[in-house]
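User: Some background: our group keeps a shared notebook of sequences we're curious about, and every so often someone picks one and asks for a predicted structure to add to the entry. Today it's my turn. The entry only has the sequence so far, pasted here. Could you supply the structure so I can complete it?
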Amino acid sequence: MTPSSKGALVLFSGGQDSTVCLAWALERYDRVETVGFDYGQRHAAELTARLAVREAMAAAFPVWAMRLGDDHLLDIRAFGAIGETALTTDAAIEMTARGLPSTFVPGRNLVFLTYAAALADRRGLADLVGGMCETDYSGYPDCRRATLDALQDALRLGLDRDVAIVTPLMRRSKAETWAIAQGLGGEVLIKITVDHSHTCYRGGREPRHDWGVGCGECPACELRARGWATWVAEGRPAVIE
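Assistant: Of course. Here's the predicted structure to add to the notebook entry:
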C-alpha cells in the first residue's frame, strides 16, 4: 500500500477503537499526528494509556514509527464540567429519562472534531480520523455518520478548505474491530491493544481480563468483552483493511 501524502490527525483517546484507527492511519498516510482531550473524565487513566500505546506501537513497528508525528493534548475541562454526566462526575452509570446512557457527554464528538479541525488546519493535515461507530456502540447520537456528515459540511464552510472526517469503524462491530487489528498488526498489535489501551469508564486498570483491563461491568467494558468473545469464537479471523 502506498501511503497518502495528505497527512492525518487521529482523535486518539488510547482506547481500543482509537488504537485500531491509529494503526489504520499509519498504514495509509505518510504523516500521522494524534490529539487527545482532557475534559475532566473520571477515566483519566486513558490519558496515560494513550502515551503507552503510542510508544509501544512505535517500538514494535519501525515503518509506522517513521510516519508517527507529534501528539497533542488539549485541555477542555471547562466543557466537560457543563455536561455533569457519569463520565465527568460520580453519577451512576444508567439509562436516563431521555433514553440515553448517563455516560453520554452532550456534544462531545462535535467539540472534539471542531478542535481537531482547527489544529489540523494549522498543522497542514487534511483528514481527521476517528473511531466513531454506529454498529456496536452505546447509543450516542454524535457517533452517527449522519451527524458527522453534517459537521464535516460545516467545517468545510467555516474553514474554507476541504476537511474529511474519516471513520474506518463506522460500520464495524467490536468483533470486527479486533479482526482489523489482527489484520493490520498481527498478534503484536493485539497484545499492545490488550496490554496498554484503556476502555473502562470507571477508570480502573484492574482486574485484567483476556481482552484487557477494566471493571468488566460498565457499558464500555461489556462491549469490548463481548466483541472479544465473538471474535475468539469465530476463530480469531484477520480482516485486511
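Suggested note for the entry: The chain is about 45% helix and 10% strand. The chain has a mean pLDDT of 88.
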